[in-house]
Amino acid sequence: MARHRFDCSLRWSDMDAFGHVNNTTFFTYLEEARVDLLFVHAGESVARERLSSGIVVARHEIDYSVPLVFRPETVPIDVWVSRLGTSSFELRYQILDEGGPVYAEAATVLVPFDMVAGRPRRVSDEERAALEPFLEAS
What we know:
alpha+beta, Thiol Ester Dehydrase, Chain A, 6 strands, elongated
């Protein structure tokens, strides 16, 4: 298992004046997929607790391909770990339809953070073990 599938519900309020999902709303969709992967499906509870105790987004990037318009069906988002370093890791995403278009491709660099000390920290062994099943080779 490398990719995790998250089914995202569209909201009417996600639409902009041009009748498609606003570009900034895609980041909310990515956040929902990321939270589902990291805090619901990744590894043991100790790793999820460690991840949820402090992690910051260091970088986002997104490429839009096809406009996404409102529909009652969910939109699948595939998310996986593309790089797992000692002090950061990267998630990659595809917002797509099965057999249809890829609406957007994105990446997020995440850094574990010590909230008490107010500084970045290393990826723990528990976090690494929780993330490795979602690691996909380039």
